[in-house]
Design goal:
homodimer; 6-stranded antiparallel beta sheet; 4 helices
Chain lengths: 158, 158
């Protein structure tokens, strides 16, 4: 698959997500970019606001979790693999309030390789992978960070 | 404050939450119960469903986070303390899919005492407290668990 096909593939997944997950739709998430290694999802502040006028913590976790889930799902789709992907565990740090539209970015955690994940999936029909995500802040520091473990399970293994 | 006043106090907070946090409103969270030590928030499956037909992970985190936030907020309001309460860090384990309406329950983490929290808040104007929350599963085991650290900051300290 060429790089020019990555954006439509990611756009299809976000469209699917918004039409099948009502909360992703009310959050109004949109594809920012996807280059195969990193995905960026945008979210407007207004539908994700809290009582203090900044972004609701639940929306920050959701945008990072959806970015991480999309990263893994897209890596599988690019290789034609049909899997159920779900988040198994996550740790989130909320570092600063977010007062404007925001984005969630996800990539593999440092030192983690796709090759190991795909080799395990091929031999066992199931594999886990660690993702690092964040919501960039208004300064150089992130406003929130997440590390999460996702599990992929082959759907049509017999 | 007598125990009979706890339910209206909690109901007021949930009404406030739903009118000021659009995502809490679209999740359709409702008060289950509050006895001063434990709060239960209910959520219907339908607005919180994912593409697989079970509860969206973001909604599971959100209902647990809102239950934890409400537990701390209510403990402060019962003592007439006006604070900003926010979540600083959380670790979530997603243990089993949730195929029906669900609830998030929150209480203090084991070994954690309100007295220490209020003493620190009185002396420093700011204190942290650890909360344990879960989404009960269809069997005896929880479907999701969360431990989270919340911070309260006195609003009108001079």
């Amino acid at each position: 698959m060429s790089d020019t096909e990555l954006t439509p593939l990611a756009q299809d997944l976000i469209d699917f997500t918004r039409s099948h997950i009502p909360q992703a739709d009310t959050m109004a998430i949109a594809l920012g970019s996807y280059d195969g290694e990193r995905i960026v999802l945008n979210a407007p502040l207004q539908p994700n606001i809290n009582d203090k006028g900044c972004a609701f913590g639940g929306s920050l976790v959701s945008v990072m979790t959806l970015a991480g889930w999309s990263l893994v799902e897209l890596a599988l789709r690019r290789r034609g693999l049909d899997c159920d992907v779900f988040v198994a565990e996550s740790t989130v740090r909320y570092l600063a309030p977010v007062w404007s539209d925001f984005r969630g970015e996800a990539r593999l955690a440092p030192g983690v390789e796709w090759d190991t994940f795909f080799a395990t999936l091929a031999s066992r029909g199931r594999a886990r992978i660690e993702v690092a995500a964040d919501v960039p802040g208004e300064e150089a520091e992130p406003a929130a960070t997440m590390t999460a473990r996702f599990v992929a399970k082959r759907r049509s293994s017999t």
